[in-house]
Amino acid sequence: MNRLLFRPSIPGLFLIFLVGLIAMPGVATAKSNKPETGQTLAMNLCQACHVFKGADQAGTLGPPFVGMSQRFPDRGQLYNIIYDAQKALKPHTMMPPFGRHGFLDKKQTDKLIDFLYTL
Question: Which domain does 68 fall in, by range?
Answer without folding.
Answer: 36-116
